[in-house]
Design a protein that fits this description.
The chain is of the alpha/beta class. Helix content is 35%, strand content 19%. The chain folds into three domains: 15-92 and 224-309 and 429-483, FAD/NAD(P)-binding domain; 113-219, no CATH class; 312-424. It has helices at residues 22-33, 76-83, 115-125, 130-145, 172-178, 183-197, 206-218, 225-241, 288-291, 299-307, 372-393, 412-419, 457-472, 475-483, and strands at 15-18, 38-41, 54-56, 59-61, 92-94, 100-104, 107-111, 221-223, 245-247, 252-257, 263-268, 273-275, 279-281, 314-321, 332-336, 341-350, 353-361, 404-410, 447-449. Strands 7-6-15-16-17-14-18 form a seven-stranded mixed β-sheet, sandwiched between helices. Residues 2-10 and 161-167 have low confidence and may be disordered. Bound molecules: flavin-adenine dinucleotide.
């Protein structure tokens, strides 16, 4: 499919996009803006079930979008939203005090806003790590500066991976060991990586760590619930303006492939069939194993799909705290090695209250329970653990329990139900030095992936849509339309 060669597909659509999370919405809109006739299918009753805010006890909050990096004006998220014409009325806030306070065992660290400040802050906590910290910050900067996504002076390239000397295949931990960093510093950076990317310090490729953390260091922020509502309304408006056919309550049951390994269309669970020779799926890549007749997949690719690891699922409890103005609360990330416990807290606002969102990360290897009674028991145990740690261990939050009203409590299986992502995995496929995500092209003609197969998080989802467009359209022409 190319902007210049394909005529409108007479028997159907130029492209069918499956799943209307942030990656599917972004991809469908880009392709429609680039002149393609697009259909978008979503199994849920509305778009973006994972991040769509909802109300409980009068408070509104998003299940799956709480914080992002690269949130300043002029940075990559703003560039994408502007090209897509989505910015109007979208309320966002920057975390002026920085990303978070991070508690690792007995130590607490503050991660301020701005690379220089992060460097200075790390130097005060780890005075013996001067060289390692200088090298680390320099390398984060270098990786970001070498990517055209973050440095607008560079020409776009089609390669999904950012290449820079030597470190593409090295993990964060390997790089820090080469810099002779202390154990404490490596543990702190690994904790940040694990919570924000889903891969531990010894797993995460340094470049992935650098592109995600680079943004969280420079400009951490969040869209308010109203902001996300508006963003999604704007997506709908633009999809409509560019003639995208949106099919809600439409679960794609099968991707139809002919005998020559070409996609020819999809079958929806109500039996209807829609044709296109280009299908872009944004659901968990492992679902391909049930949506495609598996004899059509090359055995080696089938194995790759089976073996790919998912990132963790999360237990999430939402609380409202009234009269919050006297309380100074930052985001927290808390890691206890002895208990193998990672939890976090993010802050947002709804009406006149502070909305706290507590996360307890499930160990990534644990399959979900299927028995309802067992689920109930596990959920209760996890909530007790979450509350005990948030309100008793995190400095600054002690004693707040009595003032915090539990609004809702979501479990990994709630997320699996919302999105069909295996085990409710938060960031999709785990990015490791041995498995740098999937490529967009599935080895079946006309079948592509975006979203959680490619990159983690909100930014990663958007990025995956733009990245696919760079593969399909003439990259320099497309990129100049995005950046001008
Ligand atoms: C608890 C939690 C908190 C998070 N917090 C943050 C955060 O603060 N910041 C951040 O950057 N990221 C966060 N993330 C990750 C982020 O939400 C995701 O990476 C991102 O939203 C994924 O978007 P996506 O489009 O790739 O996938 P999804 O949003 O999962 O979209 C896939 C869509 O496909 C649909 N679908 C599935 N199967 C079918 C089918 N057969 N037919 C039709 N439709 C189908 C699903 O219903 C879904 O709408 C969080 C995730 C979780 C679970």
């Amino acid at each position: 499919m190319s902007n210049h060669q394909s005529p409108i597909n007479k028997n159907g659509y130029d492209a069918i996009v499956v799943g209307s999370g942030i990656s599917g919405l972004t991809t469908a809109l880009i392709f429609a803006k680039e002149g393609k006739k697009v259909a978008l299918f979503e199994r849920d009753g509305d778009i973006a079930p994972l991040i769509r805010p909802y109300k409980r006890k009068g408070f509104e909050f998003s299940p799956g979008l709480h914080i992002s990096g690269w949130m300043d004006e002029g940075e990559v998220i703003a560039t994408f939203l502007q090209y897509l014409n989505l910015t109007d009325g979208v309320e966002k806030q920057l975390h002026k005090s920085g990303l978070a306070n991070v508690v690792v065992g007995p130590n607490e660290y503050h991660i301020p806003k701005g690379l220089d400040k992060v460097k200075r802050s790390l130097l005060t906590y780890f005075p013996d790590d001067v060289e390692a910290i200088n090298n680390y910050i320099e390398l984060i900067n270098e990786v970001n500066e070498k990517s055209f996504y973050f440095n607008k002076k560079l020409k776009p390239s089609r390669n999904k991976q950012v290449k820079f000397t030597g470190s593409t295949s090295l993990s964060l931990q390997d790089v820090m060991k080469q810099f002779r960093a202390s154990k404490g510093l490596i543990e702190l950076l690994g904790t940040l990586s694990y919570f924000l990317i889903g891969s531990r310090g010894e797993e995460v490729p340094f470049d992935v760590h650098a592109f995600v953390l680079g943004g969280f260091y420079r400009s951490p922020g969040f869209f308010t619930a109203k902001g996300i509502d508006r963003l999604l309304a704007n997506y709908k408006r633009e999809l409509n303006r560019f003639g995208v056919d949106l099919f809600l309550n439409s679960e794609v049951a099968e991707i139809i492939i002919d005998d020559h390994r070409n996609v020819i269309g999809i079958k929806v669970s109500n039996g209807s069939q829609y044709n296109s020779s280009n299908i872009i799926v944004s659901f968990s890549p492992k679902l391909l194993l049930e949506k495609i007749k598996t004899e059509k997949l090359r055995p080696i690719y089938k194995e790759r799909l089976e073996e790919a690891e998912n990132t963790f699922g999360i237990y999430v409890a939402f609380y409202a705290v009234k009269d919050y103005r006297n309380i100074e609360i930052d985001n927290y990330i808390y890691y206890n090695d002895n208990l193998n416990l990672t939890l976090a807290l993010t802050t947002n606002y709804s009406e006149d209250s502070l909305v706290l969102c507590g996360f307890l990360i499930e160990s990534d290897a644990v399959p979900l329970p299927y028995d309802a009674k067992l689920k109930e028991e596990i959920a209760k145990e996890k909530l007790d653990l979450l509350e005990d740690n948030i309100f008793n261990q995190i400095p600054g939050l002690t004693g707040l329990e009595n003032r915090a009203l539990l609004l809702d409590y979501l479990k990994p299986w709630s997320f699996e139900r919302y999105t069909k992502t295996i085990n409710g995995s938060a960031y999709g496929i785990k990015q490791t030095v041995n498995f740098h995500g999937f490529q967009h092209r599935v080895p079946i003609n006309g079948l592509y992936m975006v979203g959680q197969a490619i990159y983690p998080g909100f930014l990663g989802s958007m990025l995956s849509g733009f990245n696919l467009a760079l593969e399909i359209f003439k990259p320099e022409d497309f990129w100049s339309r995005v950046t001008n």
